[in-house]
Amino acid sequence: MTITPKQLHVNLFEMACVSHIVHGMWRAPGNSRHRYGELSYWLEVARLAEEGLFDAVFLADVIGTYDRFGDGTAAALREGLQIPNLDPLMLVPAMAAVTQNLGFGVTFSTTYEPPFAFARRMATLDLLTQGRVGWNIVTSYLPSAARNFGLEDEIPHDQRYAIADEYIDVLYKLWEGSWDDDAVVNNAAAGVFTNPDAVRPINHDGRHFRVAGPHLVAPGRQRTPVLFQATGSPAGLEFAARHAEVVFIGGNTTQAVRDNIARTRERARAHGRNGDDIRFIVMAGIIADTTQELAEKKLEKYRQYYSVEGALVHAQAEIDLRRHDPDARIGDVLKREGVPFGNMGRRFHPDQTVGSALRQIASFDEGRFFVVGTPGRIADEIERWLDIDGIDGINLRQYHTFETARDFIDLVVPELQRRGRYRTAYAPGETLRERLFEPGRAHLPERHFGSRYRNPAALHAPAEPLFPTETFSKAS
Ligand SMILES: Cc1cc2nc3c(=O)[nH]c(=O)nc-3n(C[C@H](O)[C@H](O)[C@H](O)COP(=O)(O)O)c2cc1C
């Protein structure tokens, strides 16, 4: 019996801005990031990702600015740090038009815009791309975003997930329940385009939303796009366990990653799903060249352009670490400055020294899922991620556009293919969900919460909320 080794899923990690996560790099010679506003840039991204047989281009998004560090928004503007930033949904049709198989993961927040319009936009993309889209569900963490949508401040963290749970319930009703598969008959002779008996309102009347329906878009191949989510909190984990199909997972050690995966699978089972109904993806840094020496030189070259200020802006750091004694403990510095251990706490420990935090930022080492070297060394490491850490795929972090993706495609992909760890062709016509799971699985499985609305009677039976008592304390 031959055992087929687990194959790697790969998304190209993108954002329609100059500086997404590795700040300062846009200044490196030959980097194309300043072209984020050119349609030709996105066509190149799409063609390249399809040439590399990637699962998808994954588009991050934020709807506010990073304004906590230094002089407000000025630093983010100088750095091109997620501002200017385009609407990712608008890029998909152009990229879809020049590709046949590539998928698209698009970030959209459940917190500020009502669900009906988003249901329509996403369903439009699923229809136009023949089922090649996924949705990265976020609740938005920037306080500045709240002020763009009429609020004084952020909605408390866990309450955002409670809102998201009702939001997605509305979406399922529209996507799964409002139209039958055979609703569109397109019968010119009979003068009937859509059978009215096969389309129904949803009449959702909940705590946060009232939506009558019917949905405005006939079902696409997936109906519900593939549901992606990243989380690090208990409320977010519960949300993922009920809804997400692809989860971004973190962890600094193999054990931590394995524990995170096991915990998420266990909670998914508690929601009536199978443990393997969820795929786990990590954000990975891969710097490849033909020899170890050349790969390390490339890393050094990239490091020269890295912006520590950008990293502090992105972290919404409360203090400028560069202005403090490198031997001082971060906790003591914050205390002296009268600043709470808030955003800094996500990345650093209060006992850590200022110097070590700065070295951590500047080192470029992105932790567990970072490898620099030859294709052989990289493939060895990826095999460990797949088999020992237990992940299913990566979002490929771009240090240099298009060098990072080009290197991955030219050097790493052939080595992974040689080892049976990467597809050698797309399965023509497959949906994104089928690519991530199995042929024939274009829709949410029956055991997924969202599929209940395929029974129209369920539209009138309110679903139990994930967080029944919405008692939330302070914002976080
Ligand atoms: C790989 C990855 C991609 C993410 N992309 C976005 C994004 O595009 N927009 C956003 O608002 N948040 C994004 N986030 C943040 C998550 O949505 C989430 O806020 C974070 O993981 C913390 O989890 P929690 O909200 O459960 O506390 C991303 C996180 C990760 C790990």
Strand content: 5-15%
Bound molecules: flavin mononucleotide
Q: What is the overall number of helices?
A: 15
CATH secondary-structure class of the largest domain? Alpha Beta
Q: How many domains comprise the coordinates?
A: 2
Order of helices and strands: EHEHHEHEHHEEEEEHEHEHHHHEHEHH
Fourth-level CATH superfamily of the largest domain: Luciferase-like domain
Number of beta-strand segments: 13
Radius of gyration: 23 Å
What's the topology here?
Elements: E1 9-15, H1 39-51, E2 56-60, H2 74-79, H3 92-97, E3 103-109, H4 115-128, E4 133-138, H5 143-148, H6 157-177, E5 184-187, E6 192-194, E7 204-205, E8 210-211, E9 226-230, H7 234-243, E10 246-248, H8 254-270, E11 279-288, H9 292-305, H10 308-314, H11 330-337, H12 354-363, E12 370-373, H13 375-389, E13 393-396, H14 403-418, H15 432-436
The protein binds flavin mononucleotide.
Flavin mononucleotide binds next to strand 4.
Structure write-up:
- The protein is of the alpha/beta class.
- It folds into two domains: 9-184 and 194-305 and 369-456, TIM Barrel (Alpha-Beta Barrel); 307-363, no CATH class.
- The chain is built from 15 helices and 13 strands.
- Helix 4 (115-128) packs across helix 6, helix 7 crosses helix 8 and helix 13 packs across helix 14.
- The longest helix has 21 residues, at 157-177.
- It is globular.
- The mean pLDDT is 94.
- Flavin mononucleotide is lined by residues 60-62, 107, 136, 138-141, 230-233, 236, 248, 283, 395.
In brief, what are we looking at here?
The protein has 476 residues and is α/β, with parallel strands linked by helices. The chain has helices spanning 39-51, 74-79, 92-97, 115-128, 143-148, 157-177, 234-243, 254-270, 292-305, 308-314, 330-337, 354-363, 375-389, 403-418, 432-436, and strands spanning 9-15, 56-60, 103-109, 133-138, 184-187, 192-194, 204-205, 210-211, 226-230, 246-248, 279-288, 370-373, 393-396.
